[in-house]
Amino acid sequence: MAYTNTQIEKVIIGCLLLKGNLYEKIINEINCNDFSSPLYKRIFQIIERLYSNNIKIDNITISDYAHSNNISGVGLAVLYDIQNIVPTVNAFDQYLKLLKKYSYERKILKLTEDYRLGKINSDKLEDGLNKIKLPEEINKETNKDIILKALDEAEKGTDFKFPDDFDDLNKITGGFDRGDLIIVG
Asked: Which UniProt key words apply to this protein (predicted)?
């Protein structure tokens, strides 16, 4: 297929195998349909399931899940091979951009090909093209970022904090809101 690079897909999966916590970073950015390779798509689906069940993401847990659920082709040898191809995890964001670019191009190609073959009409083509998000428009905010932001806003919402000389007291109390009863003894 012209709009695919399975090496990029392999490196993305390899990075996730090396650093399972990277999945939190991409949870809202990509999904299994962004992969063209059936193998990498299956592995990514397993990673999604493990994460949703709060199970550590690594070669052993993925291999065990695949074995327990009769998913073929996802053994330890394959996972270690994928992991060993990663040049550097530090370039993960660049790999991710490339994966999203190829995925975007494949979606456009599929829609235009369906239109060319008469499978869809021009209205469905237009609707489909409008629904496809540009790679830059994909939400980059993870659940963790959202929670941290909410906690920061909650901290800012206090009406009263002690002067800077009492930092420890501010940390303990988090400041006070209107209506809080304060007893000093």
From this structure: DNA replication, DNA-binding, Primosome
In this prediction the pTM is 0.69
**What type of residue is 35?**
F
Please report the pLDDT score of residue 124 as a whole number: 86
Secondary-structure percent of the chain, ordered helix, strand, coil, rounded to 5: 65, 0, 35
Distance (Å, whole) CA 158 – CA 178: 8
Domains of the chain in start order, with CATH, are 6-137 (1.10.860.10)
Beta-carbon count within 10 A of 176 CB = 15
The structure tokens 């988090």 sit at 174
Which two tokens mark 61?
A: 């847990």
Rounded-to-integer distance, Cα 137 and Cα 139, Å: 6
